[in-house]
Every structure is written in structure tokens, then in C-alpha cells.
Specification:
alpha+beta, YefM-like fold, four-stranded mixed sheet, about 20% strand
Length: about 100
């Protein structure tokens, strides 16, 4: 692996998240596409800030995302603030 790539942990043990500067991405696009094709994710940065993400077309599972959102909503049902109102909490935070 080239030394300019930085790796980050990802949810799965197989795939890696690679951070690469825009100029370097331009020079190594073919190699980066190979990595993405094999399941890795590439975050392209400009001046150290993430500006783009290169992922496989098959990497996004819309149904899985829909189920995750549905689970979040289901788990939040019945959760209360102990009689407090969100508006009151917001106003208290502003004062």
C-alpha cells in the first residue's frame, strides 16, 4: 500500500476506509477504483478536509437503510422526557 493512504476502522473487518488527498487521488484513480471495487471506501480530502467519498455502486443497500431507520423509529416509541417538553428544554438551553 502506498504510504500516503491513511486507514480508518470500519464496521466490517473486511472493508477499509482510505483517506487520500485530491491531488494523489487524481494520480492514482485507477488503483483507487480497484480498491473500491473490492469493497473499500475512499474518502478524498482537500486541505485535510473530506470533500468526497468514493464507494461501490453495490455498496449502498437502500432496503437495509430503510430497515435501520424503521428500527430507530420503533425504538424511540414510548420514550419520554419524564414530563418535560422539548420546547421548554430548548428555551432553558438558550437562557
Amino acid at each position: 500500500m502506498p504510504a500516503f493512504w491513511r486507514y480508518e476502522e470500519k464496521e466490517t473487518a473486511v472493508a477499509e476506509k482510505i483517506r487520500v488527498a485530491a491531488a494523489q487521488a487524481k494520480k492514482t484513480l485507477s488503483t483507487l477504483l480497484d480498491r473500491v471495487e473490492h469493497g473499500d471506501e475512499v474518502v478524498i480530502t482537500r486541505n485535510g478536509r473530506p470533500v468526497a467519498r468514493l464507494v461501490s455502486v453495490d455498496g449502498f443497500d437502500r432496503e437495509r437503510a430503510r430497515l435501520a431507520a424503521k428500527n430507530i423509529i420503533a425504538r424511540s416509541r414510548g420514550v419520554t422526557l419524564g414530563g418535560l417538553k422539548i420546547k421548554d428544554l430548548i428555551n432553558d438551553g438558550r437562557s
